[in-house]
Design brief:
Chain lengths: 65, 158, 244
């Protein structure tokens, strides 16, 4: 218990060390999450569009016959 | 010359011109870019008393005297020294033989009345045991502190 | 260089590298955090507050590295007009801005207990703040125009002009009196940091560097997909226009 308390106290600098590491976590994890989500969303959208175009293309051919 | 080559030369020349312009501007403004003056600067520049400014250097060893919340010490750059008085809380790293920056005014007697004291540390990081061992073996190169004066007077030479 | 500038080839290489980069990133940050917070000694002068360095210094390096990369991509985009270079420059900007912000805030948190102030207008701190504003300006400018290519061009020029600031940041502590101390690692005579403290610093730096590549690839993938969506939509609009 004392070991944990000493670790959190950071020799009296806990109030400066921990907010720094917390901010790093929030900023880096946040940017990673946003980037990952955007990549997945755009690629999914592109996939739907391209499949839609394929179908449209085939329909175009069959109607021409 | 193809258009690509022309654009390449344009960008390279543009960057060179920009760099030269920046170097000229920065070296011209060098006086106002420095964060503090050294005690030698104070002597050579004949700074008028009463002007707000910052001075920096090392806290001279054995010069710190405390009386209640008021502390007096001398700031040195190993060539010149300035006596400083200050009333208030000192930062954790304020120590004899180490770098300090004081903001305040010079009075008529050459005494610097600081309203704010900032500690300046050097670029060395090590555990306490290593520092003790270095001091014991005589390999310690401390005392130079953070406020190294030599680079201060040089104009930027990019 | 032009062989790698093909988006399809870029995607193939990037996607193959992505899991490895992510693995190295996660491992080095995990190990870095262990050494930074637990298994490294307090500093002889600064005590445990020195642990802020393991975030602050790699973040500062990455802030400058990302700007350099952004300026290099911008130069390639301006000179060779390759869309991939432009896209990578734009994908780099938010990562650089995040690292620069992290550097500024952790520096402030470190400066208060050690120097006695949250902020000082010395050359190093001020030039780092300017770097942050350059990133914000770049991101704003690249989205400011209705015609994206015009916005990208203006932003690329801003990135190149702002590059002047990078050497100023690096050498500010040597050229002028600053409150900030001189360089500890990249200096003449080798690092002035004990090996026990250099280890967490380098692990975190490796973690941040690979983090940049991971996020760069993800953002580039989003941009490439976005560009393809745009072309398909434009083609559909054209086709519909002709069909009516």
């Amino acid at each position: 218990m004392d070991a944990i308390r000493a670790f959190l106290a950071m020799g009296g600098y806990g109030a400066f060390v921990w907010p720094g590491y917390l901010l790093a976590l929030v900023v880096l994890a946040g940017l990673l999450a946003v980037s990952l989500k955007a990549a997945r969303a755009r690629e999914a959208e592109l996939d739907i569009l391209q499949r839609g175009r394929h179908r449209a293309g085939r329909r175009g051919v069959s109607s021409g016959e | 010359m193809t258009r690509k080559q022309r654009r390449l030369y344009f960008v390279v020349l543009g960057m060179l011109a920009l760099g030269a312009a920046a170097a000229l501007v920065l070296s011209a403004m060098s006086d106002s870019i420095v964060y503090f003056y050294s005690p030698t600067d104070l002597q050579t520049r004949h700074v008028s008393a009463g002007r707000r400014m910052r001075i920096g250097g090392l806290v001279e060893k054995g010069s710190v005297m405390k009386a209640g919340k008021t502390v007096t010490f001398r700031v040195t750059d190993l060539t010149a020294t300035v006596p400083v008085t200050y009333t208030g809380i000192l930062p954790d790293l304020f120590r004899e033989g180490q770098g300090v920056v004081a903001e305040g005014k010079l009075d008529g007697n050459g005494f610097f009345h600081a309203s704010e004291i900032l500690a300046k540390h050097d670029e060395k990081y090590m555990p306490k045991e290593v520092a003790d061992a270095l001091k014991k073996s005589g390999q310690w190169q401390g005392g130079k502190g953070g406020a190294s004066p030599p680079a201060a007077q040089e104009a930027p030479s990019p | 260089m032009h062989r790698f500038a093909n988006p399809a080839r870029f995607l193939r290489i990037a996607n193959a590298a992505l899991p490895w980069l992510a693995g190295v990133c996660a491992l080095s940050i995990a190990a870095g955090l262990w050494f930074a917070l637990v298994d490294s000694p307090p500093d002889y002068q600064q005590g445990d507050s020195v642990r802020i360095m393991y975030l602050h210094v790699p973040a500062a390096w990455m802030g400058m590295f990302c700007y350099t990369a952004m300026a290099a991509f911008s130069a390639m985009a301006l000179i060779w007009k390759h869309p991939l270079a432009d896209l990578l420059a734009r994908a780099t900007a938010p990562v650089g801005a995040a690292f620069t912000l992290l550097c500024l805030v952790t520096g402030s948190l470190w400066g208060k207990p050690m120097w006695g102030t949250w902020w000082a207008w010395d050359a190093r701190l001020t030039s780092m703040l300017i770097l942050f504003f350059l990133y914000l300006g770049y991101m704003a400018l690249s989205n400011a125009f209705d015609d994206p290519t015009r916005g990208y061009r203006a932003a690329a020029i801003l990135a190149l002009v702002g590059f002047v600031n990078v050497p100023v940041i690096k050498f500010s502590v040597d050229w002028w009196n600053t409150l900030h101390q001189p360089a500890s690692v990249m200096r003449k005579g080798g690092p002035a940091i004990d090996p026990s403290m250099l280890l967490p610093l380098m692990l975190m730096a490796l973690g941040f560097q690979t983090y940049y590549f991971v996020v760069l690839i993800l953002r580039a993938r989003a941009e490439i997909a976005g560009a393809k969506i745009h072309t398909i939509r434009m083609a559909e609009v054209h086709a519909a226009g002709r069909g009516e």
